[in-house]
Design brief:
The chain has 109 residues and is an all-alpha fold. The protein has three helices and no strands.
Length: 109
């Protein structure tokens, strides 16, 4: 992988990490417990509980993505970065730019 390609990926990964951190902060605020005495009505309370569940799942997925991004960041300077973990073929730069935490090519994924 060329040096300029690594620089592009490094910028993309850092951007994704920043975005994920912001999203995590926002989602943590949206997943706080809903007080049973909150006077929001029965239907509204059920909707709030449902929304909280959806946001908790999104928070979990975002934290997992952040962990993968940070892992990618730590491996970017290694010789085998950008190679598929299974078939050892180069992962196309377009895929890495779209999904910077990728460790597999499209065929192996």
């Amino acid at each position: 992988m060329k040096s300029e390609e690594k620089q592009q990926l490094l910028a993309r990964i850092n951007s994704e990490i920043e975005s994920a951190n912001e999203q995590i902060i926002e989602l943590e605020g949206m997943t706080k417990p809903i007080a049973p005495d909150a006077a929001i009505g029965r239907i509204s309370r059920m909707e709030a509980i449902n929304n909280k569940s959806v946001n908790e799942l999104l928070l979990s997925k975002t934290k997992a993505k952040l962990q993968k991004l940070e892992s990618s960041l730590s491996f970017i300077d290694k010789e085998d970065y950008g190679l598929c973990r299974i078939c050892k073929q180069p992962i196309p730069l377009g895929r890495l730019m779209m999904v910077p935490e990728s460790d597999k090519c499209v065929d192996c994924a």
